[in-house]
Amino acid sequence: MGAEMQMRPAACPACAVAPSAEALADAEAPKDARLFLSLPTIHCAACISAVERALNGTEGVRNARVNLTLKRVAVEAEPAVTADRLVGVLEAIGYEAHELDPGVIAATATDKAGRDILMRIAVSGFAMMNVMLLSVAVWSGAADATRDLFHWVSAMIALPTIVFAAQPFFRNAFAVLRHGRLNMDVPISLAIALAAGMSLYETARHGPHAYFDAALSLTFFLLAGRYLDHRTRAVARSAAEELAALEVPRAQRRTASGEETVPIAEIAVGDVVLVRPGARVPVDGIVAEGQSEIDRSLLTGESLPAFAGPGMALSAGEVNLTGPLAMTVTAAGQDSSLHRMADLVAIAESSKNRYTSLADRAARIYAPGVHLLALAAFLAWLWISGGDIRLALNIAVAVLIITCPCALGLAVPAVTTAASGRLFRRGLLIKDGTALERLAEVDAVVFDKTGTLTLGAPEPTNLGDHPRRDLEIALALAEGSAHPLARALAEAGRKAGLHPARVSDIREVPGYGIEGAFGGERVRFGRAAWVGAQSGAETASWLQVGARAPVGFTFADRLRPGAEAAVAGLVALGLSVRLVSGDAPGPVADLAARLGIADWQAEALPEDKAATVQALSRDGRRVLMVGDGLNDTAALAAAHVSISPASALDAARVASDIVLLGKDLSTLSGAVTTARKATRRIRENFAISALYNLIAVPIALVGLATPLAAALAMSASSITVSLNALRVR
């Protein structure tokens, strides 16, 4: 079932929350419980205000704070306040919500790395400004003792600052050198260290030039670029952790003395677990008692609920819709199907993370070239000067500073920022720093069906074929059911201006449908077999009035806006398009025909989707995966690049590299075009950096590069790269 249907309170996985927050309190000295609820449908300041006002007005709630970026609310409440009670409060004001595991969330709640880089930027920026003020006096003609004094003061400011602020570059450089490799941080670290070291040496020898300001400028600007790059990556938290947070943390276990609420870790194979209507199934097991209908759309992509009765197997993560169930546990915790899916995602993510960015590939060539050039300059001037080590080192350091890869370091972040802004205005949020580069390389697209190419919201297709009385009876029965088809019929009936008939004694028969009495006759609305009808290829629910022959109400899933344009646009760009769905063959074949997709696969399990993507990758294809459900997360993580709608499940959005903020899919082909343009701009920036070096390096090699000239040249190249990046917009 797609995201639109998931937003409906009675049948959505979001309603399936753990029954208690008491496990978070100390048994001997109860403390406030801390609950985390995911809010996938909030999108603005008004949503924040409404949610916080509703929760803070709930008895027992101490404080509720919404994080719009993470679409999450943290609630501090008395131990007696339960998560399902808070979910009910939010559902009453129209917001979808479901509980997240606080233990898992706490592990990813802070961005220590980002704060660390910001702190180093602040320190280096403050020091840089002070040293530059001192340098003005030197450049203005200060000499002898006055010049030396300014140099020593600069050294006292610069050296401890460099030791502290440049640590990220030094650590990374040391790490790769230990393994016999080079990256961009090696020439950066060498330039900073030698600039500071030679400046100190020149100051001690009363030399006319010091490079303290240049060393600090390098550190500051490169840290700023590093932070921009970090922010683009920090948004993409681990999908495996998000999946773990979605697992139900507690379950209702039946014992000889009654029922008890226990953590999932205490559930053992053979225990009997109770699952109430509207709740997520907490473990894998076999139904022992009861009948119901199960929403498997998150795990399998099936658009219609499946019947569940004694002897049938259920998996963790499925949603019980209509009747209470008792199930015998076959697997729980780390052995459950939901946890196995998290493992699949983690493996796929680690594979994707091996992608090498354009900047890293350029660094493999650039870094050794810079080192060899500086070494050559040192040796040449050592020979020309007759053994003057001081002069040779100064020129070698100038070469390192003037060739320090500031422009190269900005080449990718500058373009990524500009292109991300362009795509954001078109409704696409880029989450990963290398997503644009990978999107530009794709040559194959794999689509999920329900919730992706369709909205996952079934609509009646033949209301006009039925008499008004039948419509009114069906509407009365449908309004008493939580089944997705019943809710779709009820919504369509109200929009058509129908009024429900006076049906009495309405009751839901779990797993079959709903029945009542009208005019002294029994009326039923539900499955074909229940009313004696013959089911066909179309999705349908059947109405039987008394002894009359049952009549069918057919339904079709609604296409997502722009789906046809998206498929046509991607094909026009030369990409092959494939549809892989967990739904039944009939609906999948029908949708593929409507969109002109010749290559499709139905009844695909999560493992099958991931295997399809991996098989295409092994064949040398670069795959774009577009999906929205829990069953898509492994495939999203395994793909070369992935996109999810904003209405997707949290775990799917986290596993994807790009989020579609609106409902319209037509922007996908434009995103690929923008990504290809951005990649061209990145390569142009590399060319600009190379041209800059061709001009600046000879100046440094002949000994004409003063610290001021080096700083100006470095700034000029960085500004040029940034201006070229803006052309993407």
Mean pLDDT: 77
Strand order of the largest sheet: 14-26-25-24-15-22-23
Summarize the main sheet. 7 strands, mixed
Question: So, CATH architecture of the domain at 428-443 and 561-661?
Answer: 3-Layer(aba) Sandwich
Query: CATH superfamily membership of the domain at 428-443 and 561-661, which one?
Result: HAD superfamily/HAD-like
Structural class: alpha+beta
State the helix count.
27
- What percent strand? 15-25%
CATH C-level name of the domain at 428-443 and 561-661 = Alpha Beta
Ends apart, CA distance between termini: 37 Å
Shape: elongated
**CATH-defined fold name of the domain at 428-443 and 561-661:** Rossmann fold
Low-confidence stretches: 1-30, 232-240, 348-355
Q: State the helicity in percent bands.
A: 40-55%
Radius of gyration: 32 Å
Strand count = 26
Give an overview in words.
It is found in: Cell membrane. Keywords: ATP-binding, Cell membrane, Ion transport, Magnesium, Membrane, Metal-binding, Nucleotide-binding, Phosphoprotein, Translocase, Transmembrane, Transmembrane helix, Transport. Belongs to the cation transport ATPase (P-type) (TC 3.A.3) family. Type IB subfamily. This protein has 729 residues and is α+β, with helices and mostly antiparallel strands. Among the domains are: 1-108, Alpha-Beta Plaits (2-Layer Sandwich); 428-443 and 561-661, Rossmann fold, CATH 3.40.50; 458-557, Calcium-transporting ATPase, cytoplasmic domain N, CATH 3.40.1110. It is 50% helix and 18% strand. It is built from 27 helices and 26 strands. The strands form 5 sheets. It has a 7-stranded mixed β-sheet with strand order 14-26-25-24-15-22-23, with helices on both faces. Strands 6-5-7-13-8-11 form a 6-stranded antiparallel β-sheet, with no helix packed on it. Strands 16-21-20-19-18-17 form a 6-stranded antiparallel β-sheet. Strand 20 and strand 21 form a beta hairpin. Helix 8 (185-204) packs antiparallel against helix 14, helix 13 packs antiparallel against helix 14 (389-402) and helix 26 packs antiparallel against helix 27 (707-725). The chain starts with a helix and ends with a helix. 51% of the residues are buried. Mean pLDDT is 77; it is low at 1-30, 232-240 and 348-355.
